[in-house]
Amino acid sequence: MNIHEYQAKELLAKYGAPIAAGYAALTVEEAVEAAAKLPGPLYVVKAQIHAGGRGKGKFKELGPDAKGGVRLAFNLDEVKAHATDMLGNTLVTIQTGDAGKQVNRLYITDGADIAKEYYLALLVDRTSSEVAFVVSTEGGMDIEEVAHSTPEKIHTFSVDPATGFMPHHGRTVAAALGLTGDLAKQAAKVAQSLYDAFLATDAAQIEINPLAQTEQGNLLVLDAKVGFDGNALFRHKDLMELRDETEEDPAELEASKYDLAYIKLDGDIGCMVNGAGLAMATMDIIKLNGMFPANFLDVGGGASKEKVTAAFKIILSDPAVKGILVNIFGGIMRCDIIADGIVAAAKEVNLSVPLVVRLEGTNVQQGKDILAGSGLPIVSADDLGDAARKIVAQVKQAA
């Protein structure tokens, strides 16, 4: 689960991270009121969407010459003008894709005199099962280009969970940033606060870009991107309250209500599979046969009839889907349960695209009998290769 920048900053401030004053705003009037509470004379108006690259983004409705989603304002009139431009319009960034995201809220912050920008992030190193720091002197909007062109400028190290964050870790961060004296001490404190926040919230990512050095000699978190491990959110009811469902794909949001692992893709063959590995193999074999998967969908090992029905309806809610391939290996999952769900969903949504089903495992014959006796145009397959060939042929024939 991701949260907005203003929420991330408020959260990190509780753990001691240095944050500039700022306020969220849902309307132009609230934006102006927020700026009036700040010292000024420089304000920053920031679009709040769950995507990076806002500064270089463009608003669809404002034309190619319009400014991006992070703008400076030198008086309240400029704050009002920027807020009017942003709210309700669609911001397209390198991370949103061509569809972009509608801006429904803003973050108005106090400006800062920036002397230097740095990059600091914490991630889970899945190889070592440790929290990894990613540090660079090259912070700002072009960090992706730095990673691509000059990777030697990015330094990484991990923290052993048995010892936790130690003073030498703070010194390592400061050294990687080229900081000495008081700035080095500040860098160590920032790193410690972020590590504490990472562990306490079961975060999956904390990205500070930029971590700014001001002309006054202070380090300041100017932007923050925070995401949490969804599997741990049951322990954090307070964090669940920060969820902004308007930022999520409607189908993925619906899938989460049924504990389905669903990710929308750009293809035209809908997939429903049990098991992540089998799902990836299914997507691969669809591509091998000349078409592309429209989604990743893992119904899990113990899905109910209701869960399978919901999964089927979610796939069919995608207008790009021209055919569906169901690939089930029944271990814990029973093939007759899958078949019942498929038949129920197909009848409820009035199935209008080709459907190929491959069942194997527990109660496989009962499952096949249910499908055969349903009266629906369901094509059975003997194995995965056969299933892929059949769904591709069915879709091409229907085109």
TrEMBL record:
Residues annotated for Mg(2+) binding in this entry: N209, D223
Q: Which cofactor does it need?
A: Mg(2+)
InterPro entries membership: ATP-grasp, ATP-grasp_succ-CoA_synth-type, ATP_grasp_subdomain_1, SUCC_ACL_C, Succ_CoA_ligase-like_bsu, Succinyl-CoA_synth-like
Q: State one molecular function term (GO).
A: succinate-CoA ligase (GDP-forming) activity
Keyword GTP-binding tagged: no
What are the protein's UniProt keywords? ATP-binding, Ligase, Magnesium, Metal-binding, Nucleotide-binding, Tricarboxylic acid cycle
Residues annotated as binding ATP? K46, G53, R54, G55, A112, E117
Where the record annotates domain ATP-grasp, the positions are 9-259
Keyword Magnesium present in the record's keywords: the answer is: yes
A GO CC term attached to the entry: succinate-CoA ligase complex
Q: In which pathway does it act?
A: One-carbon metabolism; formaldehyde assimilation via serine pathway; Carbohydrate metabolism; tricarboxylic acid cycle; succinate from succinyl-CoA (ligase route): step 1/1
E.C. number: 6.2.1.5
Task: List the GO biological process terms.
Answer: succinyl-CoA metabolic process; tricarboxylic acid cycle
Give the catalysed reaction(s), semicolon-separated: GTP + succinate + CoA = succinyl-CoA + GDP + phosphate; succinate + ATP + CoA = succinyl-CoA + ADP + phosphate; (S)-malate + ATP + CoA = (S)-malyl-CoA + ADP + phosphate
Query: Where is substrate annotated to bind?
Result: N274, G331, I332, M333
Task: Copy out the cofactor comment.
Answer: Binds 1 Mg(2+) ion per subunit.
Q: Where are the transmembrane segments?
A: none
Q: What does this protein do?
A: Succinyl-CoA synthetase functions in the citric acid cycle (TCA), coupling the hydrolysis of succinyl-CoA to the synthesis of either ATP or GTP and thus represents the only step of substrate-level phosphorylation in the TCA. The beta subunit provides nucleotide specificity of the enzyme and binds the substrate succinate, while the binding sites for coenzyme A and phosphate are found in the alpha subunit.
Q: How does it assemble?
A: Heterotetramer of two alpha and two beta subunits.
Q: Its family?
A: Belongs to the succinate/malate CoA ligase beta subunit family.
Q: Which NCBIfam families match?
A: PRK00696.1 (NF001913), sucCoAbeta (TIGR01016)
What protein does this entry describe?
Succinate--CoA ligase [ADP-forming] subunit beta
Q: Which organism is it from?
A: Sphingobium algorifonticola
The organism's taxonomy opens as: Bacteria, Pseudomonadati, Pseudomonadota, Alphaproteobacteria, Sphingomonadales
